[in-house]
Amino acid sequence: MPIKSQELHASTIIITYIIVFLYREERIKLMQMHLAGTPSELSAKDWCILGEQTKGLSSSDLSNCTVDAMFEPMRELEANTSWKLNLGIVNKGIQTLISSIKETHLASFQTS
Fold first, then answer.
1. How distant, in Å, are the alpha carbons of 13, 18, 19, 89 from that of 33?
2. How many CA within 13 A on the CB side of residue 96?
3. Widest Cα–Cα separation across the chain
4. What is the pLDDT of residues 10-57, one digit of tens each?
5. Cα separation, 39 vs 37, whole angstroms
6. Residues 6+ apart with CB under 8 A from 54
7. Quick one: which of 82, 100, 98, 81 has its CA closest to 90?
8. pLDDT over threshold 70, residue 8
9. Global pTM exceeds 0.90
10. 73-111 tens-digit pLDDT
11. Is CATH 1.10.3720.10 correct for 5-81?
């Protein structure tokens, strides 16, 4: 039953929302825009899944979710009191460094 203007009291507040539904592609572009070049390992299929799962969210909701997701690794780092050393990554870095040094020295000997 609609409310007539004469039935409204001074203490009544009417809030009006304008709902704009975004298509899946628009939601995906909006999330990618908020990432602003932040590296991610999401495939096209992952983006489509995210686009479907965010159906009904406003652009503000999508912005908040995206920014919140970007800061999640920082929260995890802050919560940790100790870190595990990944020797595989360290060894790979050392091997890369050694090979680049060998290539540099090899190139300098070949030009001499």
1. 36, 23, 21, 31
2. 6
3. 97
4. 566 777 767 778 899 999 999 999 888 888 888 999 999 999 999 888
5. 6
6. 27, 31, 61, 62, 65
7. 98
8. no
9. no
10. 888 888 777 767 777 777 787 888 777 777 666 665 555
11. no
- For residue 110, with 0-12 CB atoms within 10 Å meaning exposed, 13-18 middle and 19 or more buried, which class applies? exposed
Burial (CB count within 10 angstroms: exposed 0-12, middle 13-18, buried 19+), residue 81 = exposed
Token look-up 């809030």 returns: 15
- Alpha-carbon gap, residue 98 to 43, rounded angstroms: 33
Identity of the residue numbered 69: A
Domains of the chain, by residue range, sit at 5-81, 85-112
For residue 28, give the nearest of 62, 52, 51 by alpha carbon. Answer: 51
On whether the CB atoms of residues 70 and 35 are closer than 8 A, the answer is yes
Per-residue pLDDT, 25: 93
As a whole number of angstroms, the distance between CA 21 and CA 24 comes to: 10
